[in-house]
TrEMBL record:
Keyword Signal listed: yes
Region (Disordered): 45-66
Key words, A-Z: Signal
Signal peptide location: 1-25
Matching InterPro entries: DUF928 (IPR010328)
One matching Pfam family: DUF928
Protein name as it appears in the record: DUF928 domain-containing protein
Amino acid sequence: MRSRLQKIQFTLAISWTFFNFQTLAAPPPLQKVGQAGNSFFVAPPPPPDIGEPGQRSQAGSRGCGTDMSKPVTLVSSKQLTALVPIYSGSQLVFGTTIAERPRFFFYVPYSSASTYGEFVLEEAQNQTIYKTLLTETPGVVNISLPSKAAPLEIGKQYRWYFNIYCKKDNQIIGNVEGYVKREQLNSNLKTQLEKATLSQRVTLYRTNGIWYEALNTASELRRTNSQDKSWAGLLQAVGLNDLVNEPKVDCCALENQ
C-alpha cells in the first residue's frame, strides 16, 4: 500500500513539473493592434533586451549650409517616417521578418535637389553589415538588401538607420531608426503560405506578427490591384493613416558598401 501511494505521489509530481514547464515555456501572446477587417496587425511582444527605443518619425528639420534657420525644401508638411510598428508604451520601433534580406519602407518628404539619403544596417556592437547612399525621391521608397549583403541570421536582432543629409554640407537634417529581428518560419505556416494567394499571405503574415513580409506583400498587391485594401489596412493599424495614399517611388542607389 505504501509503495503504491509513493508511486501515485511520484506520478503527480512529474505531472505538476511538466505542467509548470509548459506554462513557463509558453511564449508571450501576440497583441492585436488596430481595428477589425483589414485594419489590424497582430504585433509580437517587444524584445526585453533593447536599450534605446528608436525613432519612427523625424520631428522637424533644419536648414542646409550656412542658413540653418531656413528648413530644407519639403514637398509636404509630413515628416520623414519609417513604415514600421511602434509600441505605444515604450515608443519602441520594432518589427520581425522571416527573410534573409528583408525590404525596408520609408516615407521621404524631401526634394532630391538638395538632399541625399543613407541607409545603414548594424548588428551587435555597432558593426555595420550593410550601408548604401541613395538619391531619394519624395514619396514612399523601399530599400532591399542586395545578394552580396550578409543574410540576417535567425533569432538575431539588428538595428537600422535611415538618414537624410544636405548636399551642401553633408550634415544630417533628418533621421529615423529602429530594430528588426529575423524569426524562424514554422513548418505549418510555411505550408499555408505556399498555398496562399497574395491577399491570403498578407493575412497570414499580419496574424503571425511578421511585419516586413506583410507590408512587402501588401505593396505588391497595391501595385497590381489598386482596389486592394491590404496596404491601407496595415498602415492604419499601426497609426500611419496619413501615409496611406502617398505614392510609391523608385529609389536609386549611389553607392553600396
